[in-house]
Amino acid sequence: MSMSAHTLSLPKALVTLLAGALFGFGLSVATMIQPEVVLGFLRFQDWGLMLVMGGAAGLALVAYKGFPRWFVRPLLGGQFLTQPAQWNRQTLVGSAIFGIGWGLSGVCPGPAIAALGTGNTDILWALAGIVLGGLVHGLAARE
């Protein structure tokens, strides 16, 4: 039985749920769900998050570059996919908007969702902005 990379089976759904819960837990332990801490990091006042982000980037590099070399295919089926990066004006503008929003609010999408799990309902304002930005981008991309 061949599984497509996009076919959602029960094992894939459970692994995805577990990975998301582990990611959210890690963000919480690293205090990335607290906008004040993130803003301190962005002002170069708190170097703890630099270690967290550096460790995450290093682990992601090992996973994305190493796994396709070490395994013939992903453990739950499908195939390893590549996404060639293309820089253009839209990528630059989108990155700038994301960075400005992150710098002003101290909120990134992943930690914002994890913060909801801690009962931080003030974060809903930031999530509304993230959703609105995604909607505007989607509408602009249609043209």
Short characterization:
The chain has 143 residues and is an all-alpha fold. The chain is built from six helices and no strands.
Task: Please give a structural write-up.
By secondary structure, the chain is an all-alpha fold. The protein contains six helices and no strands. Helix 1 packs across helix 5 and helix 5 (109-116) packs across helix 6 (123-142). It has helices at 10-29, 35-42, 48-70, 89-105, 109-116, 123-142.
SSE topology:
Blueprint: H1 10-29, H2 35-42, H3 48-70, H4 89-105, H5 109-116, H6 123-142
Helix pairs in contact: 1-5, 5-6
From the N-terminal CA to the C-terminal CA, the straight-line distance is 40 Å
- Topology, number of strands: 0
Overall pLDDT metric: 86
Largest sheet: none
Radius of gyration: 18 Å
Q: Indicate the proportion of strand residues.
A: under 5%
Task: Name the poorly predicted regions.
Answer: none
Notable features of this structure?
mainly alpha; 143 residues; globular
